[in-house]
Design goal:
Blueprint (H helix, E strand, L loop, with lengths): L5 E4 L6 E2 L3 H10 L5 H6 L3 H7 L5 H16 L8 H5 L3 E2 L1 H10 L5 E5 L5 H8 L5 E4 H4 L6 H11 L6 E5 L2 H9 L3 E4 L3 H10 L13
Length: about 210
């Protein structure tokens, strides 16, 4: 029998990988310096506002386009579609492990992201039992409130949840509320940890990782 009653997992770095090809394409087409979109999009305070639900994903993207157009000219707006349409690449090995996990315990995803998370999951055909975007919770990791809110919505005490993340700070935060948290390193070590929780999963490598 499993020694946990549920799993709560990070999204990016586990089930989705970003290669930033869309941003690079948009920068090349718009004549922007390399890395400009990252600086205007993710290094700006507006991204934090979108991440905790103060503004929507679309409002944040519109703000990014407005500031880029102001500094580099209005034609920039015409070349941002590649950036916006890039939703990362799913990890098929992890998606298959997710399918196996859900046969035994409920599985939730907790991600620091905008309200675009549900649509992104649909886009990649990734199914969780519970979906927690920080934008919907109104609080992001590493706040203990984010972990407690997710556990409450899952109807489980934090001590009965396994948690995995590739960010050590977030693992430490999950442990602080009582979750059985582990650092995610590879799909193979992840599967080994799951088996130690009593989940009979098999890790079979797939091509899209």
């Amino acid at each position: 029998m499993p020694t946990i009653d549920g799993l709560l997992l990070d999204m990016n770095g586990l089930f989705r990988h970003w290669h930033n090809t869309g941003a690079q394409t948009s920068e090349q087409r718009a004549g922007l310096p390399a890395g400009a979109i990252a600086r205007y999009a993710y290094d700006h305070p507006s991204y934090r506002l979108a991440r905790v639900g103060v503004i929507t994903d679309q409002q944040w993207a519109d703000d990014v386009a407005e500031r880029l157009a102001k500094d580099y000219g209005p034609a920039v707006r015409e070349h941002l579609a590649a950036w916006r349409s890039d939703r990362g690449e799913p990890d098929s090995t992890m998606v298959e492990l997710l399918r196996q996990m859900r046969e035994h315990v409920p599985v939730g995803v907790l991600s620091n992201c905008t309200d675009a998370l549900p649509a992104d999951l649909d886009h990649h055909n990734i199914e969780f039992d519970f979906v927690f975007a920080s934008a919907h919770l109104g609080v992001d990791k590493p706040s203990p409130l984010a972990f407690r809110a997710a556990a409450e919505h899952m109807g489980l005490p934090p001590t009965k949840l396994g948690y995995f993340d590739d960010e050590p700070t977030f693992v430490r935060a999950a442990k602080s509320v009582g979750m059985q948290a582990q650092l995610f390193e590879t799909a193979e070590t992840f599967a080994s940890h799951l088996r130690s929780f009593g989940l009979p999963v098999k890790c079979e490598k797939h091509g899209n990782q």
